[in-house]
Amino acid sequence: MEIIILPTADDVARTAADAIEEQVRRGPSVLGLATGSTPLGTYQELIGRHRTGGLSFAQAQAFLLDEYVGLPAAYPQSYHSVIRDEFTISVDFAPDAVHGLDGMAEDPEAEAARYEGLIAAAGGVDIQILGIGTDGHVGFNEPMSSLGSRTRIKTLTRQTRQDNARFFDSADDVPDHVLTQGLGTIREARHLLLLAMGEAKAEAIAAAVEGPVAAICPASALQLHPHVSVLVDEAAASRLAHREYYTDTFGRKPAWQGL
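Structure tokens predicted for Glucosamine-6-phosphate deaminase (259 residues):
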């Protein structure tokens, strides 16, 4: 796990976009896309590079991390709609190259199994964007989720519903249930990009990268992955005990090594 402390949120977005661009320019790629406010700057960076720098997603596929249960794909707050509006409609993914979970599926367990099969058939995810919740959740794997969990239905905590209420008219409008990739599924991606900005994420980041691997902080499971880049701004890094070490090692990293 490499912890990279950057001056600002814009620096986090640019650095994440650098890693994704490098992957996409290598050839056919499978990207894992997250929603929420954290990756929006990265998506704007990628859109700009597509429009002015010739970055093409025509040979890429994408898989979304999660989806609300009970929201049709066309609903504005569905993650299918959010990813389309914030990113994929503005670049050149091929038709049907962006895959999401069906929040209206009659059989959520069968839908989860179908989605796992799609990811496997695509050869797995090359690079996965992740945010982190204030309670340490990634995707919608809430505290006490199994560290080996697969795609499944989950019940949201009150805290997560309150955190996501800003995207709805009120917290009461946030669905109680979601379909989400599990921690075991996420950890099968070849490269994980965990992004965090702002003081509100500082405690969760410290627990995830410096605390024990424990279900109470689901993001701590990423410590078990061989290739994780944790990109944080100064505010999100404010509670890290070993920030001098992280800054020193990243500053002396060979340029050829990349992320």
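The mean pLDDT is 96.
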